Amino acid sequence: MRNAVLFAVLVLFGTACRQLNNIDEWEVSNFQPEVAFPLVNSNTTLQEILESADDLSGIVVDPDGRIRFRYIGDIITRTSDDIFGTLTSALPSLIPVASKKMPLPFNLPNGVEIDQVVLKKGDFVYYIENPNKEPIKVDVSFPQILKDGKPYSFSVDIAAFSGSGARPSATNQITPASLAGYTLVPKNDTVYVEYEATTPGGSKVNAGLFLVRITNLQFSYAEGFFGSLLYKGGRDTVEIDFFKNYVKGNIYFADPRVSFFLENSFGIPSRSIVRDFKVFTVDNRALGVESVFLRNGFDFPYPGINEVGQVKRSTFTFDKTNSNLDVLFGAGPTAVAYDVDAFTNPDGNIGQKGFITDKSFYRVQVEVELPLYGSVSNFLAQDVFDVDLSKYNNVKQLEFKVVADNEMPLDIAIQGYFLSSTGQVLDSLMQASSQIIPGAQTDAQGIANKTSSKTTLIGFDEIRFARIRTAKKLRLQASIATGISNPGKSVRVLASQKVNIKIGAKATLQ
Fold first, then answer.
1. 3-class secondary-structure state, position 214
2. Which of 358, 91, 322 is nearest to 218 (CA)?
3. Cα(80)–Cα(371) distance, rounded to whole angstroms?
4. For residues 480 and 475, what is the distance between their CA atoms, to the nearest angstrom?
5. The domain containing residue 268 runs over which residues?
6. Are residues 276 and 243 in the same domain?
7. Which H/E stretch holds residue 329?
8. Same domain, 251 and 286
9. Count of domains in the chain?
């Protein structure tokens, strides 16, 4: 997308260039030696010019006519699996039960204290051998894995061991038991497995090899303190094509903003840590954003323990009041790159209970906003248009008359270069760069309150016209500044401001 102001200027003057095809009509004037006629009478607002652009997705016109360029980055999303995948892989694949009461070896990150986990999936497999010469009944219980208040338990009978060969065993390997719908309620952060092996006479004995395997664990809800941990977010780059036609010059945006839009359904206090926040410029520099909020971070909104399923939203904006963005965006930005991580429970309050669900997520999206409010010095852009003057052999010389009325507070200088088919400069549109449209003067708020007007004559004598007759392209350049009509001011360009351009021509025929 093109800079709207430069786009307006180039479109208006590009229209004039395309209107040169009307020269065919000169020949119907009884071959008078001199013919005068209008070429262009364009009276349009910046709003109308913007509406004619191919892509308006990045242009916002507020109800009061203020214009903002908006560039939006990709959405960075992290889900429960991304952040807390450790909950579903917290157990080893195979656990030997070495005693009649043994804690399961959950491997949770340091500082994580789980109060409860509701399982939506899980497969439980056991293998128990009997080394005793009497048959045994084995009662197995998991007191901290509950459904309807009752612990998960089962009993198996195993035949007596003859003393030689393979020991008798029991297993459910072919048909694993399902743990779906059970809730883990750890005791002092621990989940125990307990068993009793009893002979027919009531004696308590030890089982032999006892293995359990819990796989495919998936939870629907977990509650507790999830530690003060840093989780990697993601990196993104927002491209800024404001300077697409840039050649040289400086532009100062008086109020640039970079906003972080945050969404979060994790019920956990979290802080955004923005890393590697840089602005890339037209001269290939990478400039670091400076702000106290980069050192300290800013907080995600989050639902409370009684707001499960809700999504909280907030926006944090870097601007000139809390960062050096206005300085950086005066260097000609072409992109903004950033890396956002999340730090849970940043205050370390273990009494702050939180929750996560299998559908929890957080999202970050960044928007760069450049209001058309600021100052410009010698900002030069250009575009190229097709021309063909070779068939006008009866034209001896030309004089263009340009009358411009400008409501925009921008001083605009125009110069054009006629190019050959190989790109060689044949001549310029003007002998020297001439300020075609002076800027309108503004009030204290930088809004134009007086229309500026100027008339310019552009002559092509016989020698100059012969020089450009073979031209195939016209490279049109527009240089914008604010220092002449509004020295030392930041000015604001509004969508309702009009530009009226009248272009007439006087031709002397052979």
1. strand
2. 358
3. 37
4. 16
5. 70-81+229-370
6. yes
7. none
8. yes
9. 3
Identify the bridge partners of residue 231 per DSSP, sorted by sequence position: 342
- The reply to whether 184 and 308 lie within a common domain is no
Give the CA count within 13 Å in the CB-facing half-sphere of 227: 15
Residue 205 CA to residue 136 CA, distance in Å, equals 8
* C-beta of residue 262 within 8 angstroms of C-beta of residue 363: yes
Q: Where among 338, 370, 402 does a domain terminate?
A: 370
447, two tokens: 């809004």
Q: Are residues 205 and 294 in the same domain?
A: no
> 3-state class of 24 per DSSP?
helix
Q: What residues contact residue 295 under an 8 Å CB cut-off, 6+ apart?
A: none
pLDDT tens per residue across all 510 residues of the chain: 345 454 445 444 444 444 444 444 444 343 446 655 454 455 666 666 555 544 444 677 777 777 778 888 888 888 888 767 666 666 777 899 999 999 988 777 777 888 999 999 999 999 999 999 999 999 999 999 999 999 999 999 999 999 999 999 999 999 999 999 999 998 887 899 999 999 999 999 999 999 999 988 889 999 999 888 888 888 899 988 776 655 566 677 778 999 999 999 999 999 988 878 999 988 888 999 999 998 888 999 999 999 999 999 999 999 999 999 988 887 778 899 999 888 899 888 888 899 999 999 999 999 999 887 776 666 666 778 787 877 777 777 888 787 888 888 888 777 778 899 999 999 887 766 565 678 888 888 888 888 888 888 888 888 888 888 888 888 877 777 777 777 878 888 887 888 777 767 787 877
Closest CA to 493 of 1, 3, 2: 3
Same domain, 400 and 494: yes
> Are residues 220 and 296 both part of a single domain?
no
Same domain? 343 vs 381: no
Q: Are 142 and 176 in contact (CB under 8 A)?
A: no
CB 26 within 8 A of CB 35: yes
Tell me the C-alpha distance between 242 and 99, whole Å. 70
Cα atoms in the Cβ-side hemisphere of radius 13 Å centred on 413: 19
- Tokens representing 377? 């010095």
126 and 137 co-located in one domain: yes
**Of the residues 350, 370, 390, the one at which a domain ends:** 370
Give the single-character DSSP code of 191. -
- Return the structure tokens found at 56: 């308006």
